[in-house]
Amino acid sequence: MPMKIDSVVARQRVDDLEAAIPFYERLTGLPADRFEFAGVRLASVGPFLLFCGPDEAVRRVAGVSATLAVGDLAAAVEEGIAAGATVVVPAQPTPNGRRAVLRHPHGGVYEYVGP
After folding, report:
1. Which of left, alpha, beta for 107 (phi over 0: left; psi -120 to 50: alpha)?
2. Sheet architecture: strand order including 86-94
3. Cα separation of 100 and 60, whole Å?
4. Domains in the chain and their CATH numbers?
5. What angle do CA 104, 70, 63 make, to 5 degrees?
6. How far apart, in Å, are the Cα atoms of 103 and each of 25, 32, 70, 99, 112?
7. Residues 6 or more apart from 84 whose CB is under 8 A from it?
8. What is the C-alpha separation between 60 and 45, in angstroms, rounded?
9. pLDDT at residue number 1
10. DSSP string over the chain
11. pTM here?
12. What is the mean pLDDT of each run of 10 residues along the chain (115 residues)?
């Protein structure tokens, strides 16, 4: 059975997180969920992940095209590898669940999140 992607989160680097959040809250009608990870300040607002911070910390976040939520992270990683993806960051816990980063065979880098 093929892997199912439950949702896609678009990533957007911003210069000023607090100044950007009201636009995305108004656009989506949803409140922002703010958090920090690895020296980066982030806000999840509906299907958007806004982030800012020092260039060296932000590079890890900015280098990923999108976040893909899946119902079974281990199965998604296995299926990705079987289809030709390579693991950039193995599955590990984060403040919002577990994540892994894969480079797809055509060059795109995606974060997979899930249980």
Report:
1. left
2. 33-37, 40-45, 48-52, 5-13, 66-70, 109-114, 97-103, 86-94
3. 13
4. 5-114 (3.10.180.10)
5. 40
6. 31, 28, 16, 14, 11
7. 104, 105
8. 20
9. 60
10. ----EEEEEEEEE-S-HHHHHHHHHHHHT---EEEEETTEEEEEETTEEEEE--HHHHHHHHT--EEEEES-HHHHHHHHHHTT-EEEEEEEEETTEEEEEEE-TTS-EEEEEE-
11. 0.80
12. 85 96 97 93 95 90 90 95 96 89 94 94
Length of the chain, in residues:
115
Token pair for residue 115?
């249980």
